[in-house]
Write a structure and sequence with these properties.
With 214 residues, this protein is mainly beta. The protein is 15% helix and 46% strand. The chain has five helices and twelve strands. It has helices spanning 3-7, 25-35, 108-111, 116-122, 126-130; strands at residues 38-48, 59-69, 73-80, 84-89, 92-97, 102-107, 133-141, 144-151, 158-166, 169-177, 182-192, 210-213.
Amino acid sequence: MPLKKLFVIACTAALAASASAWAGGMESLEAFVKNAKSGRAEFTQTVTAPPREGQTARAKVSNGTFEFQRPGKFRFDYKKPFAQSIVADGETLSLYDADLNQVTQRKQAQALGSTPAALIAAAADLRALQADFSLEDSPERDGLQWVKATPKSKEGQLQSVQIGFQGEALAALEILDSFGQRSVLKFSKVELNPSLPAGTFQFKPPAGADVLRQ
């Protein structure tokens, strides 16, 4: 599964409580999971695949908007360069590719598991995260505090996730898959606990779209 789908299956989000400049990564993660019940933000995602022999690595940049609501509801709308939506309603995960006019749907419980989406949009508390991930503080860099999350299950394609906080505010995700592909998401215009419309996480396939259920 491509990293974009893996994450933004996900993945999910960006917010936080008021910043504590002295908080470490684990403290920031715990506060975020506890306090951020819903949120929305804009994001920029840069995906870099391992270069082939004799070639230079090329990065692909996309951007869009993100919304989430605990437990387990989120929505990624990619605007550029290609329109794509990833919507989780709590039961079903839908991936819509506008260019192909194709929708792929999976049961959400089977699709998430040890993914970035579980880290930022699904878990109720830190203990729930620790059932699926090994969590540890990472050194401060780029003005952010970091937590490294490593899936305990070795069956998925996710190798590790670095979660960056500015104080208690979620600022970045760095995702590495088992093929060496790296995806960096940076969040901006973050809103914490906004009131989201009831239909935000409902997805209806567009007329004429091919629907594939896995």
